Amino acid sequence: MPQFAANLSMLYPELDFLDRFEAAAKDGFKGVEYLFPYAYDKAELAARLQANGLQQVLFNAPPGDWDKGDKGVACQPGREVEFRDGFARALDYAAALACPRVHVMAGLLPAGVPREAARATYLANLQHAAASAAAQGVDVLIEPINTRDIPGFFLNRQDDAHATVQAVGAANLKVQMDLYHCQIVEGDVAKKIRQYLPTGRVGHFQIAGVPERHEPDVGEVNYPYLFKVIDEVAAACGWQGWLGCEYRPARGATPGGTSAGLGWLKATGA
Questions:
Q1: Which residues touch 191 (CB under 8 Å, ≥6 apart)?
Q2: Using one digit for the tens of pLDDT, what is the confidence trace for 164-209?
Q3: Is 212 designated active site?
Q4: Per-domain residue ranges for the chain?
Q5: With respect to CATH, is domain 3-268 assigned 3.20.20.150?
C-alpha cells in the first residue's frame, strides 16, 4: 500500500497551522503536504517536521497573488520573471525541508491570450523549473484541475498533462494525479491509473471524495477498489510514492473531526 500524507492546508482546520503537524503524527501519518509554506519560517517548519517524525512530501511553488485570484502564473505571458523568482524561493524551502517535490500550478488562461501562446509560455517556464530543480534532486509536478472548482484553469486533463511532460522532456517533470479532479473532469479513473502509472510520469497522487471533497469514503468514488488498483500497478511497475489526503473533513472544524473521519484510513491497514 502506498503511503498516505496528510494535507495540512485542509485537514485539522480547528487547529492553528503549526499545531497540525503534531495532530497528523498522532493519527499515524508519516508524511505531510500543504499548499504554501511561505508565511512561515523555514527553520520553524523543519523543526515541526523533525519533532513529529514527519516527512515533507510536497508543497506548491508561489502562485502569484493568491488573495487576488491568481492560481499560478506558469502559463501567463509577461510574468516569466515573477515565475522564476517564485520558483527559486520554492527550491530554497524545498532544500530546508528536504522536500523532494514541488507542484507548479499552471494558472488561469488570461483573457485575450491565445491558448497556443499560453502553452508556449507554460512549456518554457516548466523547462526552466525542471532544470533548476534537477540540480538539487527535486521533481517538478503539474496537476490537471477541474474547471468547476477553478473556472478557467489552464490544465484540466490527464492526457494534456502527460503530453506536456513529454513535450518538455525532463526526467524530473511529472504529473500530480489528483483522483478527485480526474473523476470530475473525465472519469474512468481506474483505467487511467493503469494507463499512466507504468509510464513513470506520475509523481504523486491526491485523493478526496466526489463531489463534496470530503473523506474518500464519502461520495461516488470506490476508493478501496482504486487503492487495490494502485497497489497492483505499483507492484508491477515498481512505483513508490505518496497519496496526499487533500480533502475537507465532513465534520468541518469540530474538535477532533479530522481524526474521527479517518475510519477509511484504518480500513486500508496503512
A1: none
A2: 999 999 999 999 999 999 999 999 999 999 999 999 999 999 999 9
A3: no
A4: 3-268
A5: yes
